Amino acid sequence: MSFYTFRPVANGLGTDHPIPDLPFVDDSHLPTDPRAIEAVGRKEGGSTWGRQDNVPRSEGWAAFTTDAERTDLAWYVRFHPGHGRSVMLVRDDDASLQHQTFVWDMPTALAFRAGGYWWDGAFWYRPAQIFDSAAERIVARAVPGATTVTAADLLDSAADASRARILTVAEFDLDAPAPRQWLNDLALWAQRRNGGKPLDECVVRLAAPELSGDQLISAAEMAQIADIEPSTFRAYTARGEAGVPEPQATVSGRNAWSRPVAMDWVEQRKRSWESVQDAVAVDHAGVPVATGVSELWTRYTNIMFGRLWSRGDFRQRWALRWRTEERVRQVAQDLGWSVAGNLANIVPMEELAFTIKHAILDEIASSQQLDRDTGKTGPEVASWEFHGINFRIAKMLDWLIRHNPASGQNVIADVIGEAQDRFGVPRHVTVNTISTALSLDGKLDEKTLDEFLNRALPVAE
Fold first, then answer.
1. Phi, psi torsion values for 304, nearest 5 degrees
2. CA–CA separation, 308 vs 300, rounded Å?
3. Residue 102 DSSP code
4. What is the pTM of this model?
5. In terms of C-beta density within 10 A (0-12 exposed, 13-18 middle, 19 or more buried), how is residue 27 classed?
6. Rounded Cα distance, 32 and 13, in Å
7. 137 and 20 inside one domain
8. Would you say which domain of life the source belongs to (predicted)?
9. CA-based, 20 to 30 A from 458: which of 96, 275, 319, 335?
10. How many domains does the chain have?
11. Is the dihedral of CA 294, 295, 299, 300 positive or negative?
12. CA dihedral 14, 20, 21, 25 (to 10 degrees)
């Protein structure tokens, strides 16, 4: 999972926060009002688009529009009343994704740098990779020793505005290399901009110990940390799979990442549905399947075999060349898989998961009500380590985990989040409630259960 996947292609001249190494493009034709920006691209029957939204849980607004002349490009503006505006030129196909990130996924983010490191107006945070599934929000991990580098810090006598130029949209070339002397462009931007934030408040870069050159790691080291082959990592990167984070830098033409970003990526991979599936998977006839599915497969293979082979009237229907126990068992195994592998179409998994979630929440609410009815209130009750769960409900959660681990993971996250929000139950209490119930009444062995919970439980706050 990665919440930063877009790459702006140029800075607007009216931006307060220039993105390093991107050219500057004249945006004087762009309206300043968000509704007017949206209106530029909203034309009936056309291939252009525009949108504006106030940003929830933050201040200001965000808007984008397809450029009136270059429909392959779009302008994106993020405005904050205290920190100014970022104006970026992006590929038109990326505009909606960028809007999703700024408005809904990461509403407090005002600027992104170094492959997804982000700034909220006060602090810098690492690229958003860790998702708290219980609270349903991104985990913000602050960058130790981060320093904001402003335009005022970078502009000195060595920057020569006379050797730079501001491009028009028509002149801008998507395939052109990055400016070789970007500080000259920055100097010209400082001369040509009309108003905006003071230069010492214009964010350009961040500096941090973990981003220094000697701390960055290669693709091979990323693969080593993730315990995968370098070729697998290269394939992930080439195909945009597995949520591989954007690199923090390019060194001699090779991508490089910060080690903390790599560690966050590995942590999130551990909580992915694929990893959770692996935690309770067993090998069945050379196929890795969830332990419950394996049990179901075996059960129905035996049932089918019993009918096809053990009953003489059925066995007589087989041609002589196929009338052997081994061949009939192969057919029975295939028929058994047609049941076990089709379980999601037999059992309504989403509806079952929803029912189990609310059954567990009801048990927690009933336990709290019993405490109130018996006069058990106060800090000593609040500090109890777990609530009791009816063994039938625990068995159903265990069944869901063994047959559909990803659904079980979702139920656990939802219960932890809602128990905290609705009933004020601390996370560790709900975690102990669920783990105790599964340990007492579930069928998973202790090692498998521990491995599943280690991967499935939401990240600690």
1. -65, -40
2. 12
3. I
4. 0.85
5. buried
6. 13
7. yes
8. Bacteria
9. 96
10. 4
11. negative
12. -10
CB 173 within 8 A of CB 25: no
Give yes or no: residues 190 and 220 share one domain: no
Whether 65 and 76 have beta carbons less than 8 Å apart is answered as: no
Q: How far is CA 108 from CA 35, 105, 364, in A?
A: 21, 9, 34
Domain identity same for 223 and 186: no
Looking at the structure, tell me whether residues 132 and 15 fall in a common domain. yes
Structure-block tokens of residue 72: 């392959």
CATH code assigned at 240: 1.10.10
Please indicate, yes or no, whether residues 329 and 425 belong to a single structural domain of this protein: no
Closest CA to 258 of 124, 382, 99, 109: 124
Is residue 3 in a domain? no
Residue 4 covered by a domain: no
Encoded amino acid at 9, one letter: V
Instruction: Write down the pLDDT at residue 380.
Output: 52
Q: Tell me the C-alpha distance between 151 and 192, whole Å.
A: 14
Query: What does the block give as tokens for 160?
Result: 């020569």
Domain holding 260, by residue range, is: 212-270
